[in-house]
Design a protein that fits this description.
4-stranded antiparallel sheet; 314 residues; 7-stranded antiparallel sheet; 32% helix; alpha+beta; 11 helices
């Protein structure tokens, strides 16, 4: 059993692990012990390939042609089952409200199965190890991150998926995040276009996707704790996980290492010049002494630094 399925199986009580074929009315009683990995179940294979259901008088050692014939007959049999007999096992366990199977309970080839597993795996990453030893004027710039010029970051995870968030300088520029609107898993995001939306005291702003791909998970924790985007932008405040269309080409235009560091230094200089005038030197964090400085230039911050348009709150 895969590790991520094994973790999930511990959360499902025995009473909720009724075999999908019991619910379909094909057999009378069976509790699943394989966490719905039907492709590993001997009973499932017997129903699909063997003589139990499709060919009552078939030979015990069928050849390839016979197996293919039986599978075709099984597919026809499955199509004729009523909707009430084709409930997805995630529906049986209450993890989704409604989903009917169209794959003959062959979960290994199910896109919904993969999406839910990817989401469960991504959720374990809230306490990501991040090297915070590097900073520029107090703004963290962890190693291993690729940066988009719209101040979102991308981190390559195990398996080539990409975790996305708002960088430390970006969250400081915007101030207190009051709410977050996230995309649904399965949606497609494109580099340079809004991937999610944050709500500020002054309005709503779309954060740009640093890469293109399919969303496989989102940080649902932010719906109740949006302030994590400010408090822990590189760990608990991550936004979404993306399965990129083409990993190498997605990363080539992002800023990394020394390029990212020089860029952040330039961004800090731009803000200092915009707020204080004439490139005045000094600790940029002293701006916090003036509570109104963001409100005065929030439109410019959104457009020039986040590369987005602020939608004002009425």
């Amino acid at each position: 059993m895969s590790e991520k399925r094994a973790k999930k199986s511990k959360l499902i009580p025995t009473s909720a692990r009724q075999c999908v074929w019991v619910d379909a009315g094909v057999i009378s009683y069976k509790i699943c012990t394989l966490n719905y990995e039907c492709e590993r179940c001997s009973l499932h294979q017997a129903l699909v390939d063997g003589p139990v259901l499709v060919q009552p008088h078939a030979s015990p050692s069928p050849n390839r042609a016979e197996v293919e014939k039986r599978r075709a007959e099984f597919e026809e049999f499955f199509k004729k089952l009523p909707a009430s007999a084709r409930k997805c096992h995630y529906m049986l366990t209450g993890e989704v409200s409604y989903k009917l199977c169209i794959n003959g309970f062959n979960c290994a080839n199910c896109s919904i199965q993969q999406m839910i597993e990817d989401s469960a795996e991504a959720e374990t990453g809230w306490d990501l190890p991040v090297d915070d030893s590097r900073s520029i004027e107090g703004f963290r710039l962890p190693q291993g991150m690729h940066h988009h010029r719209g101040h979102t970051w991308a981190r390559v995870e195990h398996g080539g998926d990409i975790r996305v968030g708002l960088d430390d300088f970006g969250q400081w520029l915007l101030g207190s995040v009051q709410g977050v609107r996230l995309p649904d898993p399965g949606e497609t995001v494109f580099e340079g276009t809004p991937a999610c939306e944050i709500r500020l005291d002054t309005g709503r702003l779309g954060l740009l996707a640093p890469v293109s791909g399919r969303v496989i998970a989102t940080n649902e924790r932010l719906l109740e704790q949006p302030g994590l985007v400010n408090e822990s932008p590189y760990t608990n405040g991550w936004l979404l996980m993306v399965k990129p269309f083409d990993l190498p080409s997605e990363l080539v235009n992002l800023l990394y290492g020394g390029r990212a560091r020089r860029w952040i230094e330039q961004e800090i200089g731009r803000v200092r010049e915009k707020v204080n005038g004439n490139g005045r030197q000094g600790n940029i964090h002293e701006l916090e002494k003036d509570a109104t400085w963001r409100e005065d230039i929030i439109d410019e911050i959104a457009g020039e630094f986040l590369l987005a348009k602020l939608k004002k709150v009425a």
